[in-house]
Structure formats: structure tokens, C-alpha cells
Specification:
about 350 residues, alpha/beta, Quinone Oxidoreductase, Chain A, domain 1, Rossmann fold, 2 domains, 7-stranded mixed β-sheet, 11 helices, about 25% strand, globular, binds NADP nicotinamide-adenine-dinucleotide phosphate, binds zinc ion
């Protein structure tokens, strides 16, 4: 690649749905009022980046730079930004910020903010680049003991599983299953263990058992070796199944393992599946979704991870190798998160 001139940066800009993932030179963005510019150091490759790459929704606008697991350093402040300094280490996740004063924000419903509509890497440019701009309300402070590569996956895979589990209603000692051992799932297992749940990991095949046990799981169920719902029932029935898989069929196969009052908490964006209402109503069971978190939730996730030793297991790729990193994630072979590095 040619030398960068001072106003240009490297970025992976998707021109249109199904466009190529390749590095190009684009203008370095300027922070608008209320925004900061971040010198990106690392960015995780989340399965949700496929929404941008594949054009899953008509409201995703192009060209677009994906990436919503961002860790870096503040490089410039837009007008009116207070409380943040150039040089501070920060992270940005899926939630691209909020105004904090509209009616939805005042109810705590920050994702429905009436004034800021940014979803990082989806409706605003994200972290597959040397620099990005972000709303100051989207920033989380990074703890000193987490490197950028360690922190990046916590900004989506981490906060989503941590936040879902801490709001799931499960109590220490109760049976919590984590379905799927990918980017989200391998962090979900670690958080569930550290929160004191009797944690079960469920994945396809025997080969992930050793990794699941290394992550702290008390039990492992190979969903391809038998009926995973029966295996969960044999353990007493789950209070929560945290479903991180991309397959609705895989969720349908385990839901029968919910105990009384149990909830299947879906994080995975999967195809529809059917649930017998009689199964839900006869024991107060439910199916529920969970949507990421705010910048404060991310900061809580980072602090909890720093305190308890929860870490993402990563495979790092230089930004130039973005296509390889993305394909590795989509193949399901990554153990467990591909992370792009900029330096
Ligand atoms: N709710 C939210 O706010 C939120 C946030 C981030 C991501 N997501 C969504 O969460 C999902 C997981 O993201 P990720 O980054 O963790 O993905 P990932 O690393 O690619 O992992 C995908 C997981 O899906 C499982 N899987 C794939 N195909 C399957 C099949 N046919 N049957 C059973 N299991 C299958 C794999 O299970 P095995 O371990 O068995 O191989 C793997 O654990 C995606 O749908 C993503 O869009 C949602
Ligand atoms: Zn994500």
C-alpha cells in the first residue's frame, strides 16, 4: 500500500451489500459537535458485522465501515465535549450514543433515543479503520490492565453476555446453560461461572469440551451426541438458557431443557423457530431477547472482567488481512474471536 498522506487513513469501506472487504485510503473523519475522534488500536470481528457486509436491512446505508468492538485512544475532541481528554483510552460498542434528555432516554430506553440514531458500524462508520468518530455518550473508559486487543471483544460480545446474564433473574447456584461456544458464548460461559451460576456449556461436537472446561464450565453437553434438552433436564432443568447460536433450530432443540420458571434468553440473530405455548404456560417458562448495552454497561463489563480475570480468547489479524479474519469468523473455526489490529 502507498504511503498515507496526513489527511488519509486506511479503512475497510463496504461499497454496497456483499461488497468486498478490502483496505482502501479514505479521508480521516473530523469529529462533529458532541463527538470525539478515536485512533483505533483494535477492533473485534463480530458475527453481527455480517448484517453490514450482507445488507441484512434496507435501512443500512452505504458506503459503510463495519466494526463495533472498538478499542483505542481519543485523538481529537469535537466542540462541546466535556469530561473526556485527548489521550484517554476508550472503547465503543454497538450503541452509538444517545442524547440522555429525550423521553425515551429519560425512561432508560437508550437504544430508542429520539435524537441520536447511530449503530456503530451499521448506520455510522465503525472500527475497521485507523480512525473513527463516535458520540461522547458512546464511550467506555478502558481499565489500565486490559490491552486494546483484550478490551475490544468486551465491547460487544462481552457486554451483551454480561448484561444479559446480570439481568436474567438467575441467582448464584442456579443452573444456567450457555448455548454455542463462539465469540459471545465463550465469554458467556466465563461470566456465568464468575457470577456463581452452575454453568453448562452446550456446543456441537466433542472437540469443544476441553475448551469449555478450561473456561470454567461445570458441565458440557455435546448437542450432536444426543438430545440436549434431555441432558439439561437430567441436570435439573435450566433457570436460564443463554442462546448465543446463529441457528433457531439449535435453540428449538434445547428449549425443552428449561426448568420451572426458566427463560430462554436469545442473543443470537437466528431464523424463527416454534415453541409449544403449552410448554411455556404449564411451568411459567418464557422466551426473551436481550439487546447489547449502553456505554455504562460496557464500562461495568470491563471492570468486572478486569476484577475477575474474564478474558476473550483471541486470534489477532492485521487490518490488511480483514477478508481472512472475517471468513475465519464466518466459518465457525475461530477460537474464539478474530480481532483486527491497526499498529
Ligand atoms: N443480542 C445482541 O445484542 C447481539 C450482540 C452481538 C451478537 N449478536 C448475535 O449473536 C450471534 C453470535 O455472535 P458471535 O459473534 O458469537 O458468532 P460466532 O462467533 O460466529 O459464533 C456463532 C455460534 O453459533 C453456533 N452455530 C452456528 N451455526 C450453527 C448451527 N447450524 N447449529 C448450531 N449452532 C450453530 C456455533 O456453535 P458451536 O459452538 O456449536 O459451533 C457458534 O457458537 C450472532 O447471531 C450475532 O449476530 C447479538
Ligand atoms: Zn457484535
Amino acid at each position: 500500500m502507498a504511503e498515507l498522506n496526513s489527511k488519509k487513513m486506511r479503512a475497510v469501506q463496504i461499497a454496497a451489500p456483499h461488497g468486498a472487504l478490502k483496505v482502501a485510503q479514505v479521508d480521516i473523519p473530523e469529529p462533529a459537535a458532541g463527538q470525539v475522534r478515536i485512533k483505533v488500536q483494535a477492533c473485534g470481528v463480530c458475527h453481527s458485522d455480517s448484517l453490514t457486509v450482507e445488507g441484512a436491512f434496507p435501512w443500512i446505508t452505504y458506503p459503510r465501515i463495519p466494526g463495533h468492538e472498538v478499542a483505542g485512544v481519543i485523538d481529537a475532541l469535537g466542540s462541546g465535549v466535556t469530561g473526556w481528554q485527548v489521550g484517554e483510552r476508550v472503547g465503543v460498542g454497538w450503541n452509538g450514543g444517545y442524547c440522555s434528555y429525550c423521553d425515551e432516554c429519560r425512561k432508560g430506553n437508550f437504544f430508542a433515543c429520539e435524537n441520536v440514531h447511530a449503530i456503530t458500524g451499521v448506520t455510522s462508520d465503525g472500527g475497521y479503520a485507523d480512525y473513527m468518530v463516535a458520540s461522547a455518550t458512546a464511550l467506555a473508559r478502558l481499565p489500565e490492565d486490559l490491552s486494546a486487543v483484550e478490551a475490544a471483544p468486551l465491547m460487544c460480545a462481552g457486554v451483551t453476555t454480561f448484561n444479559a446474564l446480570r439481568n436474567s433473574g438467575a441467582r448464584p447456584g442456579e443452573l444456567v446453560a450457555v448455548l454455542g461456544l463462539g465469540g459471545l458464548g465463550h465469554l458467556g460461559v466465563q461470566f456465568a461461572v464468575k457470577m456463581g451460576f452452575r454453568t453448562v456449556a452446550i456446543a456441537r461436537g466433542a472437540d469443544k469440551e476441553a475448551l469449555a472446561r478450561k473456561l470454567g464450565a461445570w458441565h458440557y453437553i455435546d448437542s450432536s451426541a444426543g438430545d440436549p434438552a434431555q441432558a439439561l433436564k437430567d441436570l435439573g432443568g435450566a433457570k436460564v438458557i443463554l442462546a448465543t447460536v446463529t441457528s433457531g433450530e439449535a435453540m428449538a432443540a434445547v428449549i425443552g431443557g428449561l426448568g420451572t420458571g426458566g427463560t430462554l434468553l436469545t442473543l443470537g440473530a437466528a431464523e424463527p423457530f416454534t415453541v409449544p405455548p403449552i410448554f411455556l404456560l404449564t411451568a411459567n417458562r418464557s422466551v426473551k431477547g436481550w439487546y447489547s448495552g449502553t456505554s455504562m454497561d460496557s464500562q461495568d463489563t470491563l471492570a468486572f472482567s478486569s476484577l475477575t480475570g474474564v478474558r476473550s480468547m483471541n486470534e489477532a489479524f492485521p487490518l490488511e488481512n480483514v477478508a481472512e479474519a472475517y471468513a475465519h469468523m464466518m466459518s465457525g473455526k475461530v477460537r474464539f474471536r478474530a480481532v483486527l489490529t491497526m499498529e
